[in-house]
Recover the amino acids of this structure.
């Protein structure tokens, strides 16, 4: 499943911790937006980790699950790259 994680973190130290955590699971598509192809269970684990870092009074986190059909409809205007991951099985 594809998830987009987006954040607005007030403190630079917490912001760096959030970005380093997300870099382990996905690709940065904008400064505060990550594209992650992970299982729903792993997405919940990622959320749990991020919630230990943020200050809920000052920061915000958004979690967007994106279905495969919606992901195929993504378009881009301007400078950037649309990430399309392929799944396959090794027999």
């Amino acid at each position: 499943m594809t998830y987009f994680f987006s954040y607005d973190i007030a403190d630079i130290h917490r912001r760096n911790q959030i970005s380093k955590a997300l870099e382990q699971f996905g690709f940065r598509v904008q400064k505060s937006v990550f594209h992650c192809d992970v299982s729903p269970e792993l997405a919940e684990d990622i959320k749990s980790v991020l919630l230990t870092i943020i200050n809920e009074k000052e920061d915000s986190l958004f979690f967007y699950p994106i279905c495969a059909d919606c992901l195929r409809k993504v378009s881009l205007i301007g400078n950037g790259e649309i990430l399309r991951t392929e799944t396959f099985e090794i027999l």
